[in-house]
Amino acid sequence: MKIFPYASIVMVSLATVASPSAAETRSSAGARINGWVPEICRLSAGSFTVQTDGTVRGSVQEICNTNSAFQIVATHRSLGASEEATVRYAQAQASLSESGLTQVAVRRGQSVATVPIVIDARNINAPIAIAFTLSLV
Questions:
Q1: Largest distance between two CA atoms of the chain
Q2: Does residue 75 contact residue 100 with C-beta atoms inside 8 Å?
């Protein structure tokens, strides 16, 4: 026969409640529970494909459990003076800067979403790779 430790605790508790002497004694107890949830914000890339019009479409999984604002930044190679490229992140659109660091969007509040991205880099002279990062503002 298996003995479950919780079963004996329940029986003792029931016996105490049913006891007449326990009914006459009035007592109270309280407990305070404190905890914290760490802020977690991250992006996970989905698949990206080149479209027939030359744009690149894909998505990222955006997860952020803070009520603060956060920004999405695109890191890329420096662009030449005659090069142009744009990124649309959900409804926000930004032209890539010549410096190689471009703020693409600022978002607020908690988010768990699949966000569509469209990259138009048809007016560049050399291949380009773009990395997206998320940071709290």
A1: 91
A2: yes
**What global pTM score does this model have?**
0.71
Min mean pLDDT across 5-19, 21-35, 50-64 is at 5-19
* pLDDT (tens digit per residue) in 85-132: 999 999 999 999 999 999 999 999 999 999 999 999 989 999 999 999
State the first-to-last Cα distance of the chain, in angstroms, to the nearest integer: 60
What Cα–Cα distance (Å) separates residue 51 from each residue in 47, 69, 90, 130?
13, 32, 18, 17
Q: Which residues have CB under 8 Å from 78's CB, separation 6+? A: 98, 99, 100
